[in-house]
Amino acid sequence: MYHERVVDQYSNPRNVGSFDKSDSNVRTGLVGSPACGDAMRLQIKVDEVSGKIVDACFKTFG
Fold it and tell me: Which GO terms describe its biological process (predicted)?
């Protein structure tokens, strides 16, 4: 059986979604191959003063 934390993360995923692309504090990375149907987009929001990551989200395809 899976650990309860694994089951919780699978049942209630966190930070799934996307940020507004027009936000100048958002950086986006894409891994995988959208042409093959398997890719993941990771976005981070960076504080413009401190340079620290203040939020993150992801979305998977395929």
Answer: iron-sulfur cluster assembly
Q: Tens of pLDDT along 5-18?
A: 999 999 999 999 99
User: What's the whole-model pTM score?
Assistant: 0.78
Give the integer Cα–Cα distance in Å for 62 and 45. Answer: 25
DSSP helix/strand/coil, 45: strand
For the chain, domains (ranges, CATH) are: 15-61 (3.90.1010.10)
Exposed/middle/buried for 57, CB within 10 Å: 0-12, 13-18, 19+? Answer: middle
* pLDDT value for 36: 86
